[in-house]
Amino acid sequence: MFSTKFSTFAIACLSLAVIPRTRGAIIPVTVGGPNGTIAYNPSSVTANVGDVVVFTFMQKNHTITQSSLATPCSPLANGFDSGFVPVPANQTSDFPQAQLTVKDTNPVWVYCRQTGHCQQGMVFAVNPGDKLAAFQAAATGGSTSASISASAPPTSTSASSSAPSAPPTSSTDHVVVVGGTAGNVFNPTNITAQPGDTVTFQFHSKNHTATQSSFGNPCRALGLTSTTGQVGFDSGFMAVDANATTFPTFTIQINDTQPIWTYCRQTGHCGSGMVFSVNAVDPNSFAAFQAKAIQLNGTASASAASPSNTNGATLPVRSAAGTIAFVGLVLGLVL
Ligand SMILES: *[C@@H]1O[C@H](CO)[C@@H](O)[C@H](O)[C@H]1NC(C)=O
Ligand SMILES: *[C@@H]1O[C@H](CO)[C@@H](O)[C@H](O)[C@H]1NC(C)=O
Ligand SMILES: *[C@@H]1O[C@H](CO)[C@@H](O)[C@H](O)[C@H]1NC(C)=O
Ligand SMILES: *[C@@H]1O[C@H](CO)[C@@H](O)[C@H](O)[C@H]1NC(C)=O
Ligand SMILES: *[C@@H]1O[C@H](CO)[C@@H](O)[C@H](O)[C@H]1NC(C)=O
Ligand SMILES: *[C@@H]1O[C@H](CO)[C@@H](O)[C@H](O)[C@H]1NC(C)=O
Ligand SMILES: *[C@@H]1O[C@H](CO)[C@@H](O)[C@H](O)[C@H]1NC(C)=O
Ligand SMILES: *[C@@H]1O[C@H](CO)[C@@H](O)[C@H](O)[C@H]1NC(C)=O
């Protein structure tokens, strides 16, 4: 049933075709970002065979292009290349994505083909071992920059040889900014999402979480109140500097149209209304959920709070890998 969601391009050691069969981790990587960030975040990942690296193209106009350790800023013959993915500066959601499945543990070297970006250090690696610094230095040292041209990228293995005729189904990644200059809020506060979509929480400054709760108990982890054994997702605390330019992310998969209720576990935040919902419907609206959070955990309720309140700290913190299955491919980008 999942096969139509994915392209099935088979490229070098990387393939999209095996995604529906794997139980690998999802590893999110942002490409570019607000204010013209020229970087991949994170700049490298360690991945196991079967893991899926999901790239989210943010603002500007970048590529994901395979290169080599020796020549970081030149396309690898028969390597993969996303092509340019322009994203307007005013776009704040529905970012295009591409993904690649890790087929072995050899290093995979990647750069952005946009003029000057590689030389400014816009490189990325899967399983670089101890070679990441050397790769970055070779990129910014300019030793290979002269060979970059605007010519067509290397042709990768054609989709037609292995892809079924069905095009990739469109799904959406909803980016939600957590904290930052807007204060202790999720932005947007509430969204509507379809099964197959994803929600990527992008953590800005301060120290927040995105933790699943329930409508009845907005400020308590779902696992602490569920009568049906649900654990719920939890990003864990994401401490981010005020002057940070790259932001950690946490992605959840939307599996159905049931409402999803979320709050920040940081002391005082939920009680001040730092909550978020997916697919809230009247009478259990987002506004009602937020009002309940403030009513139950706001200053008015402070004196009633249990002294043994651990602020949710007993919740087992699960990695992104443990809480999401896989991410649908948004665009038919070729990796
Ligand atoms: C982007 O620029 C705006 C306005 O200059 C600033 O408020 C914001 O903090 C910047 N964001 C990042 C991620 O640097
Ligand atoms: C993206 O960058 C490429 C290469 O510089 C350029 O050809 C293309 O026009 C750009 N697209 C947009 C929409 O700016
Ligand atoms: C972004 O700006 C362009 C040009 O000003 C405008 O046409 C477009 O509607 C804007 N998009 C959004 C999402 O605001
Ligand atoms: C983030 O907040 C948590 C909970 O209050 C705290 O345990 C942790 O030390 C904080 N991290 C940083 C870096 O401030
Ligand atoms: C952020 O700013 C502080 C003080 O201005 C500085 O000490 C720190 O190194 C900066 N951090 C980053 C990541 O730039
Ligand atoms: C839900 O989010 C939309 C923007 O996405 C906002 O306009 C609306 O006010 C929010 N609803 C509530 C109750 O805050
Ligand atoms: C909200 O209040 C309840 C009841 O006192 C408490 O169990 C829970 O930990 C509080 N949540 C937060 C995030 O402080
Ligand atoms: C969606 O399903 C996957 C796989 O069962 C699960 O890991 C994930 O937590 C679910 N998403 C939500 C929001 O419950």
Helix/strand layout:
Blueprint: E1 10-11, E2 14-15, E3 26-31, E4 40-41, E5 44-45, E6 52-57, E7 60-62, E8 65-67, E9 85-87, E10 97-101, E11 108-111, E12 123-126, H1 132-140, E13 173-178, E14 186-187, E15 190-191, E16 198-203, E17 206-208, E18 211-213, H2 222-225, E19 238-240, E20 249-253, E21 260-263, E22 275-278, H3 286-297, H4 320-323
Parallel strand pairs: 3-6, 5-12, 13-16, 15-22
Antiparallel strand pairs: 1-2, 3-4, 6-10, 7-9, 8-11, 11-12, 13-14, 16-20, 17-19, 18-21, 21-22
The chain binds 2-acetamido-2-deoxy-beta-D-glucopyranose (8 copies).
In brief:
With 335 residues, the protein is mainly beta.
Structure description:
- This protein has 335 residues and is mainly beta.
- The protein folds into two domains: 2-146 and 316-331, Immunoglobulin-like (Sandwich), CATH 2.60.40.420; 149-296, Cupredoxins -  blue copper proteins (Immunoglobulin-like).
- Helix content is 9%, strand content 24%.
- It contains four helices and 22 strands.
- It has helices at residues 132-140, 222-225, 286-297, 320-323, and strands spanning 10-11, 14-15, 26-31, 40-41, 44-45, 52-57, 60-62, 65-67, 85-87, 97-101, 108-111, 123-126, 173-178, 186-187, 190-191, 198-203, 206-208, 211-213, 238-240, 249-253, 260-263, 275-278.
- A four-stranded mixed sheet has the order 4-3-6-10, with no helix packed on it.
- The longest helix is centred in the C-terminal third of the chain and has 12 residues, at 286-297.
- It is elongated and about 60 Å long.
- Bound molecules: 2-acetamido-2-deoxy-beta-D-glucopyranose (8 copies).
- Residues 144-172 have a biased composition (Low complexity).
- Residues 144-173 are annotated as: Disordered.
- It comes from Roridomyces roridus.
- Residues 1-24 form the signal peptide.
- Keywords: Signal.
